[in-house]
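Final report, section 2: Outcomes. Of the targets proposed, Asparagine--tRNA ligase is the one most frequently requested by collaborating groups, and we therefore present its record in full.
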Amino acid sequence: MKPTISTIGRFVDQEVTIGAWIANKRSSGKIAFLQLRDGTGFIQGVVVKSAVDESTFEQAKSLPQESALYVTGTVQADDRAPSGYEITVTGLKVLHKAKDYPITPKEHGTEFLMDHRHLWIRQPRQHAILTIRHEVIRATYEFFHQEGFTKVDPPILTGSSPEGTTNLFHTQYFDEDAYLSQSGQLYMEAAALAFNRVFSFGPTFRAEKSKTRRHLIEFWMIEPEMAFVEHEENLQIQEQYVTYIAESVLRNCPQALAALERDTSKLENIQAPFPRITYTDAVAWLQEQGFDVTWGDDFGSPEETAIAEHYSKPVFITHYPKAIKPFYMEPDPENDEVVLCADLIAPEGYGEVIGGSQRIADESLLEANLEKEGLSSEAYAWYLDLRRYGSVPHSGFGLGLERTIAWLSGTEHVRETIPFPRLLNRLYP
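The predicted structure is given below as tokens.
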């Protein structure tokens, strides 16, 4: 196997050659220290003047940041190094000498860094966050495969919406209106009635004019949908999934978590089962805490944060009023004013990371809800077909990838949890 920084531990006391870039460097007369990166990780290369020829040492001292090169040297175990290893360099071959790299080792403003996002993702902190993103995605596929789910891809261009078209991006689809999808849920319901348990993973779009640290215009969603699954089992599967990805990040991303100085005890505490509180009880508790909220109001960030801080784990808020939830949610058979749904609120102020519910299985009730919402039964005819031909109790949920990564990595703003964020005022780069 060709050596990389991520696999360097397999080559202790051996001479290797790796392709790398200079992330940073420093020198002290007789020794040059190169902070090297190769895309798989970071490692220090030590160049001792007495051990190399004069040209090599001068290159080590003078090569600018982000110059590309082949580095030859011997791998040494070093407990003091973040990676546990370093390279004693014996030779350098310069591939490209960078000039005036804009992101120098100093403080830069966020807008400057966002303008240079194509370069910013090379930095150790950004690399760590996106490494955790990769692990969450990898663990997601692994979890759902192990649990017997089939991956199904819903369309991105749609003629209708699960939650109305108010916040959707509109486009022309030849001679008719179309929208960029804000959720694949309705299509996943069709897939669930064909494959039993399914999940999708893909981009979604919401034209919300929000500038909060929790919002992106384009973001990625994991949306499982399950036939013959009711509200309680739906919550249990969510608990198992979130616990699984948290454990995977802890187990497989120790260096990334260390680079982010993440308090891993917070992640170790993400263990099922999660506490639950009904919306009605949450309103009463918030009122006791002095919040100006009445039954029927939707919760905002301050309310969600206060509720989450009351618990040491993620918390489910269940049974919201049907008036503030989408048309497809199943009413609670014991209280027609609320629906069988739940939002999973992450601790540490990260807010809602999952929204889910049991879906309406009765054709007449679904049709009445569509009419009440002013939605065309013709546009949703295919969705109504699912209740006409073999309807069963079914449930699902959607997990927002970027919010989840922000929470697990301890990152303040979701813009750093996606390689190239799309924000209210940003379409570049």
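The chain has two domains: 5-96, 117-416.
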